[in-house]
Amino acid sequence: MDIKDFVAGKFIEQLEYKSFSPNKINKQWIISNPEVNSLLSEANRLIGELNAFSQIIPDVDFFITMHIMKEATTSSKIEGTKTNMDEALIKDEEDINPEKRDDWGEVQNYINAINKSIEELKNIPISNRLLRQTHEVLLSGVRGKHKLPGQFRRSQNWIGATLKDAIFIPPHPSEVEELMSDLEKFIHNEKISVPHLIKIGIIHYQFETIHPFLDGNGRLGRLLISLYLVSKKVLLRPSLYLSDFFEKNKAYYYDNLMIARVSNNLTQWIKFFLVGVIETSKSSISVFKNILKLKSKLETEVLPKLGSKVKKGQTLLTILYQYPIVRTKNVAAFLDISTSTANRLIMDFIGLGILEEYTGYKRNRKFIFREYVDLFK
Is the pTM of this model over 0.90? Predict the structure, then answer.
């Protein structure tokens, strides 16, 4: 079927409301629209360039950790969570303002969900089983913990304040299992030839339309994009996350999903999705370029000023790429040195402009690798 002939589904009368029943998607999709094909070509080119950077950068996993932090913060922000990236980088809950701990916990869960699901791809394919496992991690111990973590919903959900004034009412719970089975079959259908970026665009649209869980659908649906691209080896490393683009264009994101449902205009959604891949790839490539520039400057111009402490400074700098917010006790443990030696090294890093103290406290101070963190903002 050509995506221009897409028929989204139909509204079904339920008791006091109408739910949307989407048509199944496991079929051959053809793209005859020249604009879509042009965007697809550009998106594939940029992902190729992004993959090249993820291969040539030493210790690239350190920097991908930061991409994951940003994704977790931004994706949760779309759902109303107010944790910023500096707070997301803090590992100890007691260091978080009690009023912000719920939000912080949700972001930490998202980070864990990304890491565990990508690791789990080594053992099981992308599947409903993996999505349910990831959903359980996402909602564990936070505000959604009573909304059936790891289980497809057995009651009606909706988008809006109440069912009566809902903007969108997903399919009746009795349809969820069959629709998610169709989605899984589409993911693994090797008999059809659909470009991966088109395929995941359709998958994301369908997942958000089914809304298979009582909570966490938005976050999991956005995570599903990266999971799919990694599982199909479109991405060599998990370095592309679209939540920042979706958050900046939030109204268009929701509008384009709805346009596909009510006007059968899947083409518009696919165009928007591909623009998101293009813009996000450009941004990620720019971040990698800036990381290389910063790394080169610090290693060739700044660290040599430490004299006899250069070796310890190089080790600390490597640690900071992964943990850009530290305390003195962290540095002492990482480098296996005394607290006083660690404190002197931190003071050296402050003097060199690498670290800055940002709590304003005299005790329990924390230090941030600000120039590096800001590359991801």
Answer: yes
